Every structure is written in C-alpha cells, then in structure tokens.
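**Backbone description:**
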Amino acid sequence: MTTETIPDLPAEVDLRSAPGVLEGARDLELTPEQCDLRYWFDHVAGGMLRQLRDGTVPDPGPTPAVLTPGPLRDALVAEFAFRHLAESKATRALTQLVFHAPDESCLEFFSTQLIDEARHSRAFRDHLLRLGVPAGELAATVQRVAGADGAAVLDPLEEFGLGVLRDNADFYGGVLVLTVLVEGVLAPAAELSERKWRCFDPAAALIERAANVDEIRHLTVGSAVIRRLLTEHPGERQRLLDVIGRGYELWRRLPMQEMLMRRETLFQRGMEEHAALAAGYQVWQDRLLLDTTPQERLATAESWSHETRQSRLEHMLLGAAG
C-alpha cells in the first residue's frame, strides 16, 4: 500500500477532507467552467479514484456482519439494489442533458456527471457481488428486492424528468429537476447511509462516501447553472418555479417514506443483533447510533434534505420554491 500524496487535489474531491453533503451543499461554489473535462481527469479520475485504487483510502471489504444471512444483510442488499437502479436511471436521463447542453462548458460537465452516475451504479452493483450475490443471479436479485420500489418511486420520477428534458427540450428545467428533486432530496439520505454503515460495513460506507463527494459537486454546479440563467434572464424564474412545483407535487405522492421505513426497520433489527460493532459510535453529534430509532433516523434525514434543498434554492434565486 502506498501513502503517496496526490499533488494539487482540491479539498472537494479528496476523500479524506471533502465536506459532507450538508456542508458542501451550503458552502461550496463551483461552476461548469471549473469542473470541465480536464478537472475531471486530473482531480476525479487522477485524484479521488486514484485514492481508492492505490490504497491511500483503504477499502476494508465487507464484514462478517453483512456476509451472514439476516436482517442487516437484507437491509444492505435492498438499499444497494435500489441505489443501483436509481443511478442507472440517472445515467440514462443525463444523456438528454448532454444532448441539450447550451454550451461547451455544460456539455463537458454533464458528460462527466453521466460517467459519475454510471460509476455509482456499477459500484453499488459490484458490492452486491461482494456480499455474496451470485453473478448469474444479480439481475434477478435486484429485481426481486428492489424492482417494486423502483417501479413505484423511480419510474414516475424518470417519466417526469424525461417529460421536461426529452419531450419539452427544456435543458434548464432538466437541470433543476435533477439538482433539486433528485440529487437535492436523495443526497441527504445517502449521507445517512454513509454514516450508519460505517460500523457494520465500512466498505459500503466508503462507496457511499465516494458517491456523496461526487453528488456535492453535481449539486453545486447544477445550482450555479440555474443561478447564472436567472441572473441573466430573471423572466425565466416563474417558469422554473412552475417546473419545481409540479415536481414537488409528484414527490409528495410517491411512497418514498414507506420504502425507507421498511428498510430502516430491517436495519434496526440487524443493528440490535450486531450491537457490539456500534458500541460508542455517534451517528451525528451527541447521538449514539444504537440509541436511534427508524423514525428518528428518517426524520433527521428529512431535516437534512430540507436544509440542503433550501440552501440550494436560495443560491439559485428560487428561495420561494421551498
């Protein structure tokens, strides 16, 4: 293993120092011009991903707690199967943003985001193999444990996003849907996932960490794109407010909370079964993971989601949408 320092690696793509979702969404500012292809090759592929390849940030592999049949493993398999489906759909939707990109900077940035989402999809899928799902049964397993949730939650989101992007050729509406409705809502849940798996499967938490570092960049640049549009064309504000209003109306009808509660209930049972692994671990400030309940964890993730969404909307000059 090498501990070679990677030179000139910006903090936001350093797995050891990048902010969490909440801090990054609130404080970080990046533009598509900054996060172009050269940035991605130098700092993401040549920096963050190199940290994983060369062991600078070690991958400990799955633990016996999640390799053993039981509710903890079931919760992780269900979560990562769903995340695999979500990232796959995001990858496909991003082809439309690339197609409709209004300039070279946006074309390059959203091309890198497309690759990021495809990487995430593969990382979640590959971890299912590491958990012992046979390669020949992977697709069937994903469908069995996450297919119904994907149809109930992801398919309507995909249909809505493609209606904006593909059918209406609305690039900025598509950026807004992706940044606020998809990334902005799901990223805080991924932050919770990273934190809660640290004790039971540090390798799974590392996958979430790497994905979250990418999502902060996606949130930040997407927000910059919308802010620039509304600074230069304030007359577009009401149209974008209408898009996000329809998106929120859809989101409220989706059975997301029911799905998350089922998953957190499984996690709770598994956590109690393997409680010794989490002894003394604070999942957030002054709160031990072992003392939390499914309801509390979901309420906390929802508060993080609201905070992240509000911060990004205000930055995008769409504060009234929250």
